């Protein structure tokens, strides 16, 4: 890639001629087509899928409810597997899996097809029907993908819960989704340790009466308890199942999955995605942004428990017949070069990872990647938070060898697929900017009143196929949280530069991002006040050099509670037990009173001022302005 200096002094990286020549998208035609007629554009893109019955209407938009490809029938699993049978993809490797201890497994499309058919039959035998909700709580193993596709095949709605979530979080999600069945494993591996997944699942299931059956994948071989009549080994079910299971004909608007994500309240939202529009979005953005080619070895390091693992591990790459790597384990196990060893070993061509991981690698030093042959890489991706220019430059140089474009992809659980991102053969890159909205995506930056601005709230002014269709069982929350003046409200702030590039500025609400994991400050606060000795709590995020953001909590203990020395650690563990380890506050500061307005609203903004060492903003609305001095003293002394 060449570079030149703009008058802003930002370095711009232009696509190399070699990359452009071979790229799926070589010019701006797609942007022009989309700008001319957005609906016609999306209708044309939808032809990337195999439909059992074509749609009658492209879009039915009754704000804020959209239906895409109305009347169309298809099956997501069919589009990921069946349609590759009888083509050159049939005998191609679909999944290469490597475990932390070096175990390897390679599965062709035909083998994946066979296993999914069998597991679909097994699910049916356990009484799962179209529309039933199935929870998945699995480590990063091929069975996680099999489970998702099998649900899709029979029309069951999957809800994947990240295996790092606690039993309590798993329970909440299964209850809200009214899950009828749970698919889990005996355990998982992480940094050489065993995760007791089945044990956690058992604990969660005590409070989930709707779950009738549990399927257990044998993975770690650790001893576990099975509840007879309820629990079934995955391999037994597969062994007994018929080999063919016809895919259910699904309406384009039938639900494909629910995925829970944090918002500004203590209760996570079940984001609903449907079949047709979602799959069009995931499939086409994989072609545009990742420049998917039959010869690629693609590796997205995200877990299937997050939206990235849905769109860019399970659905997008498989719908495109790609070969991909799945790795279950930590990047520093057994050594800090594990990722680079994997890339070298499998000849990975596309790597999609998160800024927090890149910053960690930077900290470990370039000697780790330098010892490995990374010359197979041709494209790099980033997701989860803004990538700071230093991390961008390091990624570009030390991982991409200076030759690989970096696609900084902005999107959300709610958007279903990538929204703002470079198209690698077309878009000149500016490190730190996600560049431009993809074709067909009507992103606008506006102020409070909805007026276009160069700095303000990022909104999406027109519906797009892979948009969320609602919040499970909570239409009011869907309407209130996401829609304003007929536009979708992302919750992110953004700026436009003089060349029209989008620069994402982080959340404008009480949603925080720790190592690319989305959390609500309210969620952490509810976990804290759940402890018997806590009266009140306020959680804030402060910038962190590796994690992007980290959590600091201010806690007022109940009067009778005693301050034992281990109390801070105990509270941190309590949060880990309620949400998951990744939600543990970095610091807890014990204070007598929180800064509150006269009406009792906690002023988190003032706490952030203290934590970031700024002069506190306006304190005149506080019921008791003197608390600020006390908190500041406490913050500095600890
Ligand atoms: C939030 C969505 C989309 C998959 C991963 C996270 C932030 C995500 C970027 C990016 C700047 C980003 C936003 C967004 N975010 N990607 N490339 N640049 N910010 O999904 O958990 O739904 O979180 O992550 O703040 O709103 P999520």
Question: How would you describe this protein?
Answer:
By secondary structure, this protein is α/β, with parallel strands linked by helices. The chain folds into two domains: 5-494, Rossmann fold (3-Layer(aba) Sandwich), CATH 3.40.50; 515-637, GMP Synthetase, Chain A, domain 3, CATH 3.30.300. Helix content is 30%, strand content 26%. The protein is built from 20 helices and 33 strands. Strands 7-6-19-18-20-21-22 form a seven-stranded mixed β-sheet, with helices on both faces. A hairpin with a 5-residue loop joins strand 1 (2-5) and strand 2 (11-14). Helix 19 packs parallel to helix 20. The radius of gyration is 24 Å and the shape is globular. It starts with a strand and ends with a helix. The relative contact order is 0.10. Bound molecules: 5'-O-[(S)-butoxy(hydroxy)phosphoryl]adenosine (WT7). 5'-O-[(S)-butoxy(hydroxy)phosphoryl]adenosine is lined by residues 261, 307-308, 383-386, 408-413, 434, 490-492, 504, 507, 513, 518. 5'-O-[(S)-butoxy(hydroxy)phosphoryl]adenosine binds next to helix 11, strand 22, strand 27 and strand 28.
Write the layout of secondary structure elements.
Layout: E1 2-5, E2 11-14, H1 17-22, H2 29-36, H3 38-45, E3 57-62, E4 65-70, E5 73-74, H4 76-80, E6 93-99, E7 104-108, H5 109-125, E8 133-137, H6 142-154, E9 157-160, H7 167-177, E10 181-185, E11 188-190, E12 193-195, H8 197-205, E13 213-217, E14 231-233, H9 234-240, E15 250-251, E16 255-261, E17 269-274, H10 276-289, E18 297-300, H11 307-319, E19 323-328, H12 338-346, E20 350-353, H13 355-364, H14 367-370, E21 379-383, H15 389-399, E22 406-409, E23 443-446, E24 455-460, E25 470-471, H16 475-482, E26 483-484, E27 487-496, E28 502-507, E29 511-514, E30 517-520, H17 521-529, E31 534-544, E32 548-557, H18 567-578, E33 587-590, H19 604-611, H20 627-637
Parallel strand pairs: 6-19, 8-9, 8-10, 10-13, 13-14, 18-19, 18-20, 20-21, 21-22, 32-33
Antiparallel strand pairs: 1-2, 3-4, 5-15, 6-7, 11-12, 16-17, 17-25, 23-24, 24-27, 26-27, 27-28, 29-30, 31-32
Helix pairs in contact: 2-3, 5-6, 5-9, 7-8, 10-11, 13-15, 19-20
The structure holds 5'-O-[(S)-butoxy(hydroxy)phosphoryl]adenosine (WT7).
The site of 5'-O-[(S)-butoxy(hydroxy)phosphoryl]adenosine has 21 residues, from helix 11, strand 22, strand 27 and strand 28.
């Amino acid at each position: 890639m060449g570079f030149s200096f703009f008058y802003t002094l930002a370095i711009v990286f232009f696509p190399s001629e070699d990359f452009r020549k071979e790229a799926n998208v070589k010019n701006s035609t797609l942007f022009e087509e989309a700008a001319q007629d957005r609906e016609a554009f999306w209708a044309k893109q939808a032809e990337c899928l195999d439909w059992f019955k074509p749609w009658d209407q492209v879009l039915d938009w009754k704000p804020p409810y959209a239906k895409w490809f109305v009347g169309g029938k298809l099956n997501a699993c069919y589009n990921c597997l069946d349609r590759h049978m009888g083509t050159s993809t049939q005998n191609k490797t679909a999944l290469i899996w490597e475990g932390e201890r070096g175990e390897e497994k390679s599965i062709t499309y035909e083998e994946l097809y066979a296993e999914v058919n069998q597991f679909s039959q097994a699910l049916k035998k356990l009484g799962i029907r179209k529309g039933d909700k199935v929870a998945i709580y699995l480590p990063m193993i091929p069975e996680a993908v099999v489970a998702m596709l099998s649900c899709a095949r029979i029309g069951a709605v999957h809800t994947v819960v990240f295996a790092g979530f606690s039993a309590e979080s798993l329970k909440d999600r299964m209850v809200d989704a009214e899950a009828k069945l749970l698919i889990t494993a005996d355990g998982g591996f992480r940094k050489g340790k065993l995760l007791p997944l089945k044990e956690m699942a058992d604990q969660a299931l005590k409070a989930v009466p709707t779950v009738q059956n549990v399927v257990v994948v044998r993975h770690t071989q650790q001893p576990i308890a099975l509840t007879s009549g309820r629990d079934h080994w995955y391999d037994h079910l597969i062994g007994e199942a018929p080999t063919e299971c016809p895919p259910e004909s699904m309406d384009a608007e039938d639900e494909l999955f629910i995925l829970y994500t944090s918002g500004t309240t203590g209760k996570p939202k079940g984001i609903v995605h449907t079949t047709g529009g979602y799959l069009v979005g995931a499939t086409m953005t994989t072609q545009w942004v990742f420049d998917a080619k039959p010869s690629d070895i693609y590796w997205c390091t995200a877990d299937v428990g997050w939206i990235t693992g849905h769109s860019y591990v399970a659905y997008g790459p498989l719908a495109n017949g790609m070969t991909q790597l799945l790795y279950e384990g930590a990047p520093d196990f057994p050594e800090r070069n594990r990722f680079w060893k994997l890339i070298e070993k499998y000849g990975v061509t596309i790597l999609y990872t998160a800024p927090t991981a890149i910053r960690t690698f930077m900290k470990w030093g370039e000697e780790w990647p330098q010892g490995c042959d990374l010359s197979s890489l041709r494209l790099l991706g980033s997701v989860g938070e803004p990538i700071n220019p230093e991390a961008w430059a390091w990624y570009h140089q030390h991982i991409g060898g200076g030759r690989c474009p970096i696609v900084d992809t902005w999107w959300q659980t709610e958007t279903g697929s990538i929204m703002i991102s470079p198209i690698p053969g077309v878009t000149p890159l500016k490190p730190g900017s996600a560049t431009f909205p993809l074709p067909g995506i009507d992103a606008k930056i506006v102020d409070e009143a909805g007026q276009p601005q160069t700095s303000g709230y990022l909104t999406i002014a027109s519906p797009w196929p892979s948009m969320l269709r609602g919040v499970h069982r909570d239409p009011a929350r869907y309407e209130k949280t996401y829609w304003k003046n007929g536009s979708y409200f992302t919750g992110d702030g953004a700026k436009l530069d003089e060349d029209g590039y989008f620069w994402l500025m982080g959340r404008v609400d009480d949603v925080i991002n720790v190592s690319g994991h989305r959390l609500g400050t309210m969620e952490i606060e509810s976990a804290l006040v759940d402890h018997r000795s806590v009266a009140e709590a306020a959680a804030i995020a402060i910038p962190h050099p590796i994690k992007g953001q980290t959590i600091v909590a201010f806690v007022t203990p109940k009067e009778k509670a005693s301050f034992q020395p281990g109390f801070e650690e105990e509270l941190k563990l309590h949060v880990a037990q309620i949400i998951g380890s990744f939600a543990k506050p970095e610091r807890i500061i014990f204070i007598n009173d929180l800064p509150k307005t006269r009406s009792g609203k906690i002023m988190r903004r003032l706490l952030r001022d203290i934590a970031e060492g700024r002069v506190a903003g306006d304190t005149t609305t506080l019921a008791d302005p003197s608390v600020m001095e006390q908190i500041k003293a406490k913050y500095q002394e600890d």
